[in-house]
Specification:
This protein has 359 residues and is mostly helical. The chain contains 15 helices and eight strands. Helix 2 runs antiparallel to helix 3, helix 6 crosses helix 10 and helix 7 packs antiparallel against helix 9.
Length: 359
């Protein structure tokens, strides 16, 4: 039900009830303005995108915190969301009413993040969390449309990953206490993420078939969770890794975690991080646990592995991720063309060399 009525003071009162039965009213000096507003609201009700004019008074801080509490996601995603909201989005936009946030406010948020020297990827992650909050507000009919539209984000110029040399890998390995050296060998020879490696159990290693089953990871909290892709993969490893793991278990037997500490408990991420930090400082090599994953990928690519092979080996959800990370390591089209033509002209090449030698 909708109506327009002139009050004794000459002001026109337009009112209607939404689909929940709640009444809404506004006052206008002119009847034509009251009619225009009422038509807009009733049309929105018909389209199903009606927004309660008072709902948008909720602050961004209040709504974002409520939204965060009901999200269902992995521990890693929860950490990213919490950091984005607590450290960036709420301090910048939290005091605004959610309906008052404009595109320019969001663009200013992005500009401010860039000024903090955050990487393009980090800026995008924070922006995407903000965009999810406002998209949810649209779905909850607090606002008619999200302010996260046509936002200019910093370009990711595809900074090439830094691949350590085999000498650097060896230097870090030797700088570790002997008990933990097989971790470096395994990371560099399997391409596992550090969480995946810390989540391995002895039964996950098939010494006969020289492979490792990866179906879980150990989070920084110490809890076990599904892998990043939530899929199980079998990673082939060479004899070097198999021998290192066999020697490790012979010296430090375990019926549970492949890498356990001195009291038999699974090695935790915090302990490993400190061990690696001390080793890299002693070796004078700037690497992280993920650097050894890059080493494994680089070795495969230099050996002629296809994008698909590298994707499956690393457990990437798609070849796009593999190419985005390691495209610069694959031979370029020009190099591939030269190699193909040289192979096709092999017999002629022999004649050319013979002719050149006879001159």
């Amino acid at each position: 039900m909708a109506s327009i009525k002139k009050r004794p003071d000459g002001v026109w009162r337009a009112r209607y009830r939404d689909d929940s039965g709640k009444e809404h009213a506004r006052h206008f000096k002119r009847k034509v303005d009251a009619r225009r507003w009422l038509d807009q609201q009733t049309a929105a009700l018909v389209r199903g995108d009606h927004v309660d004019p008072k709902a948008g008074r909720t602050s961004v801080k209040t709504y974002a915190e409520q939204w965060q509490q009901i999200q269902v996601s992995s521990a890693g995603t929860k950490r990213i969301v919490d950091n984005a909201l607590r450290l960036h989005v709420i301090p910048e936009l939290g005091h605004h009413r959610i309906a008052a946030v404009r595109r320019s406010h969001v663009q200013a948020l992005v500009k401010g993040l860039e000024a903090k020297d955050l990487s393009a990827g980090s800026v995008r992650n924070i922006y995407e969390v903000a965009a999810q909050v406002f998209a949810s507000a649209v779905d909850d009919r607090l606002i008619a449309q999200s302010p996260c539209r046509r936002i200019t984000l910093p370009r990711n110029d595809g900074v090439e990953v830094d691949v350590p040399t085999v000498e650097e890998v060896q230097a870090v390995r030797l700088a570790l206490p002997e008990r933990w050296r097989p971790i470096i060998t395994t990371l560099a020879g399997s391409g596992l993420r550090i969480g995946e490696l810390l989540g391995l159990q002895v039964e996950d290693v098939d010494f006969l078939r020289r492979s490792v089953r990866v179906d879980k990871q150990r989070l920084q909290s110490g809890l076990i969770a599904p892998t990043k892709s939530r899929a199980t993969r079998t990673v082939p490893v060479g004899q070097v890794v198999i021998d290192a793991l066999a020697a490790h278990l012979a010296a430090h037997p375990s019926d549970d975690a492949l890498f356990a500490d001195e009291v038999g408990e699974p090695l935790r991420y915090g302990r490993w991080k400190k061990l690696l930090q001390d080793a890299t400082e002693a070796a004078g090599v700037a690497v992280t646990s993920h650097s050894f994953r890059h080493f494994a990928a680089s070795a495969l690519i230099s050996g002629g592995a296809s994008v698909k092979q590298v994707q499956v080996f690393l457990g990437h959800s798609s070849a796009v991720i593999t190419l985005r990370t390691y495209a610069h390591l694959f031979p370029g089209d020009e190099d591939r063309t030269r190699n193909v033509l040289d192979a096709a002209l092999g017999p002629i090449a022999d004649c050319v060399r013979t002719e050149a030698a006879s001159k």
